[in-house]
Each structure stands twice: as C-alpha cells, then as structure tokens.
C-alpha cells in the first residue's frame, strides 16, 4: 500500500508542472522562461542529492567519455520535451495538457524499432532490433479516444489553428521524452543510477537552456520575479520531490510486475490533480460532461494498460516509466 501512496503523492507534485506553467502563461510570463528556468534551478538541488549519495565523480567521468552523446540526447530528452510542453500552455489549460500528455505511452511504443537488445543464442550473442508491440498499442487506443473527447470541447472555444498547434507541441514532446531518455539509458547502462542520469542530462542540456534564455532576453525581456519564483517551485515540486517519490515507489516494487504496474497507473492521477488545482487557483471553467468522460476514459485506459501490458514480454527492457518529469 505504501508504494501506491507514494505514487499518488508523486502524481500530485508532478501536476504542479501543468498548473504553474499555465499560471505563468496567464500572468503574462513567457514559455521561454518557464522552460529554461525550471532546468537551471534543478541543478543545485540534484547536485546536493547526488553528492549526498557520493555518486558525483562517477557521473562526471562517464560524461567526459561521451560528452557529445550526452549533449545530443539530453537536448532531445529534456529540451525537445519540456520547451514544447511549456509552449503548449499558451493554447490549452493545464489539465488538458496533462491528459493529452498521456499519449506518450503510445509514442514510446512506436519508438521500439529504433532500439535493439542483445540476446544469447546457440551461436553466441546477437543484437535484435525491437518491434512495435502492437498489442500494447492496441491497449492504448482507449487513452487516445479519451484525449480526442477532451480536445473536442476545446475545439469549440479556441481557433482550430491554435488547437492544432497546442496538440502538435505535446506530440513532439511525447516522442522526444522517451526517445532521449531511452537513448541515455542505453549509453549509461547500469553504471549510473537514475539520480545520476537525471543530473547528467540536466547538466548536458544547460547549453540549450542558456541559449533559450538569451533568446528570451532578446525577444521578451527578463522574467518577472513572480515567474522566477514559480519556476523554482516547478523545479522543486516536479523535478525533485515528485521524482524522488516516484523513484522510491518503483524501487520498492521493482521485482513485482503487478505491483509495478499499480505504481505506474497512479500517474494517471496527474490529470485529476491538475484539474482540481486549476479549478481552485485559476478559476478555470468546469469541464463539460464530454470532457469528464474523456478524463475518465484516459484514467481507466492508463490503469488497464499498466496492468495488462506486464502480462506480455516487452520488446525492450528500457521504458520511459522510470524517469518522470
């Protein structure tokens, strides 16, 4: 029961990403600063965690050996993930982005052919390219249906072009996130733990965030004090607290696939927490029955997918479920 509780707590803190990004957008803050400041502020907190675990030197050594790969895939996994997600906040409420974000389950499955694993055969070790798990994709279709239902309400309230731009931004993020993270997991192997990997990717992505910050200074000026504070809160709540809670929960049930699926399914609660937060603090309009139906379908689809997918042998050992936002 404790891992489930920790998973729900993690979803609660992850939801702050969507709520605060929307708050900053509505108060006139630029998505540029919402994105870049979050990762810049994450560095000192993650450094303290890794140093406390006495794991900083192995990380720096590993990064020096393959700094080019670290920078490329960190840009993909963090830069092309979070910048579009913040950009989407200009077009949709946070709860809707949180719901649409669940499409990353489908996106991650479609990336399987880009990865390979080594298996032992009678003739020796052979690399086998991953295959799209069509059963997993099929089980994910209810999630897609729920997302479409949620978007249908927005289609009547905002211009179609704005709606499509917001959806496209989330789609880009949904592919970039698992792609960059899985590539980095392949590069790191078992030499680094999750905390080292997140810190390493954050450090390697800093050139992009500094460049984006310079672009922000030139185009929109410096961020307000309010946006700086809110970005720091996102870094603490989502980048540190939620990540630590989720890693702790998954580590507790690592050897039990059914319990692991239960912990993963708790992350569908992000949609509910994001919605409640916007209703309380942003006076967001209550979703229509159609949107509520879509939210329910997404949550049920997430739970069903998590439970059933572990009954099948995965195409690859690495998934995006062990590295959250």
Automatic annotation (TrEMBL):
- Species of origin: Aneurinibacillus soli
UniProt KW Transmembrane keyword:
yes
Q: Which Pfam families match?
A: EmrE (PF13536)
Bilayer-crossing regions: 31-51, 72-90, 96-114, 134-152, 158-177, 198-218, 230-249, 269-286
Which residues, if any, are the signal sequence? none
Extract the InterPro entries matched here. Answer: EmrE
- Whether Membrane counts among this entry's keywords is yes
Identify the keywords attached in UniProt to this record, alphabetized: Membrane, Transmembrane, Transmembrane helix
Q: What is this protein called?
A: Uncharacterized protein
